[in-house]
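pasting input
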Amino acid sequence: MTKHLCYLSFAAMIFLSGCKKEEVSSYSPVINNVTDNIIVATYIDLDAKAQLLVDAANALKADPSNATKLSGARSAWAATRAPWESSEGFLFGPVSTLEIDPNMDTWPLDSIGVDDILAGTDIINKAYIDALTGDAGTGLKGFHAIEYILWGSDGNRAAGTFSTRELDYLVACAESLKGKTAELKNAWMASGDNYANELKSRGSIYPTEKAVLVELTEGVRGIAGEVFSSKIQNTLDGLDLSGVSGGIREEESRFSNNTKTDFTNNIISIQNVYLGTYASSGNGNGLSVVVAARNTALDIKIKTQITEAIAAIQAIGGNADVTFSTALSTNRASIEAAQLKVKTLETTLRTELLILIGNL
Amino acid sequence: MKKHILFILAFLLLVSCKKEEIKNEASEEFPGGATTYNNIFSGSFEQPSSNLNTEELLQHNTGDAHFSANFVTSPAIRNQGLGPIFNHISCVVCHPKNGKSPQPFSGDDLKGLLFRISVPGTDIHGGPANAPGFGTQLQNKANVGKQAEASVQISFTETSYAFEDGTNYSLRKPSYTLINPYIALPANILVSPRLGQQVIGLGLLEAINERDLLAHEDISDANGDGISGKANKVWNPVSNKIEVGRFGWKAGNPTLLLQAAGALNQDIGVTSHIFPSENSFGQTQYDGLNDEPEVDSQQLADLVLYTQTLAVPKRRDFNNSDVLSGKQLFFKIGCDKCHTQKYITGAGVTPSVSNQTIYPYTDLLLHDMGPELADNRPDFLASGTEWRTPPLWGIGLTPLVNGHSNLLHDGRARNILEAIMWHGGEAENQKIKVTKLSKKEKEQLVRFVGSL
């Protein structure tokens, strides 16, 4: 039997050797560019902005009645938030496995817990905030704790109204956040734990280049899904295990009215990975390159849908000045319209892009 | 061209003239049957089963939100009911990305590890007896103004061993000490560490017909193969009967409804109509709020359905020659005697899990794993040295999903090979056979298990 198999396969191979297998070019230009010039670059930017936020928080603490210092701290918060929200298109790897995300961006904020700490006598410093780990602690720190101090729950705190403990809390949370952004950057960089290398070279985590492209695609698909089906949807119907409608309470950056910017940056995150550009860096080798080589119509469709989703989010409320919170009461239709654009994008990413990448 | 043909010919002759190949059935590539999710990435454990209809998907997504919700102290507008004593505020801490929690190193951050406790004896149903003042689970966290039941200290002892091929391996055994109890601990308290398990494919496991599960029992080892699997039979407070358990490290839960409701109550402090009494009832930490149940039955049903409708990821490289060699070793050594490869499920709660050909690699039965792994805390029919065979599907994706490769009931094994080397008791013979494998064979075996 074995002898026959030998002859049979010999014959088959002679036949088959006439048909040349399709050459598969390497996707390393895309993988390297997205890894280094999008992902790592975003984390470097995030860490730099987090330092500026620490500086601005300290400046406010030193001069708490100064309205300029307050507005400086608020701007620094928003400037740090931007690269963070722009990283949500690739929420895999160390940001997730090292639990960095919950220590930076847990929502909802446990504002009652924060108020309890402020009313108490615990010494508040970076070490104290750092120790608020795991679940019971993460709701007390991060972006939204800082936002809560700087703006108050009604968004209208004035300079000169901060207690010493609140300022201590502000600085400590900013320092703790900066610790996390440094950890995240270090986890990816070659000078640190070099998670970037897992994407750029073949090992046990991503044994094939295709596996990396699948991860990147699922990442952009995931944030699109989260924005329309969770972040926006929660505000529209107020998901609440106690049966009480949340609405505006679900809006993630409502203290600062940064929600529209947050969602815009989430879609920009998709855009960065897709187009292979980030601010002024990136060489254009993004998922688009892989798609355009196989299906130019799909490539154009995705680009268009990304642009339209961003525009629709910006148009929530009718114009750029109207906040998300206001639009929830006065122009719900504009929120639903934006949600639909994001949902459409997610559908395309899931049903067309993912299939294309899956078939590589 | 000639040179190429010659090379190809030589290679092909070599390949086709080797010994009989191990084959796969095509369905083995899809361990979850029609629920299988085909893309492998860090979120592969968080996908809805691929065969859900629109309503099921909607309910799945609703349940998903409950699974990742952060509970807070009552009263609150949203997700209230946390504590007064608890282990974590959300399901996802113990089940990160629906995968496995890493092992903790310090009692300050136990990660997804919690401790079942009891005292010798049984309760009226034959289950673990309450540790007076503490219950059957230790809650190491508390709401502001309340005292946690106790904290934990962890220490490790590492021992080196040698394989027959001369290479070494080492096993690191954790030991746990309860400290700072809020009242004196019972002198004879029994403590069992339990790490959060992955949440994939559970609906499929629930849909395995009981008769198929019991068919693998051999309590007296009648066939003399050294393996004596035993079903755990546990109390179901919903049906008020003793039933076959299949979920949890010692198969303590018969259904996913009880698993979820129990976890909400014991791990988070959230009451439901299944377990309407706070875990702190009768203790000084009890809040006396009378706000039970803290989640309603629809919310609980949505949460349970979520856990029943999570996809199992596709196999990786299942036809790779090393993987196939490893598969041959797996069966030859007899790993499949407990890690039963395949079932066809019966009728489940949702059509998506019904009549599916699945490859979970577990018999869901209890086995004596030897003294080194023992928790010495009986649980219904499970003795102090017995553990339920965990499913192996998805095991190779833990590094990608969770960034570590800790295995076993408290994460003590740092990789698949260590997990195998911890096997003792009924599996002692299988472990010994693995120690005799060549380096390459060990790699193939591990590669096969990692491909599941």
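fyi Residues 209-360 of chain A form a domain with the A middle domain of Talin 1 fold (CATH 1.20.1420.20).
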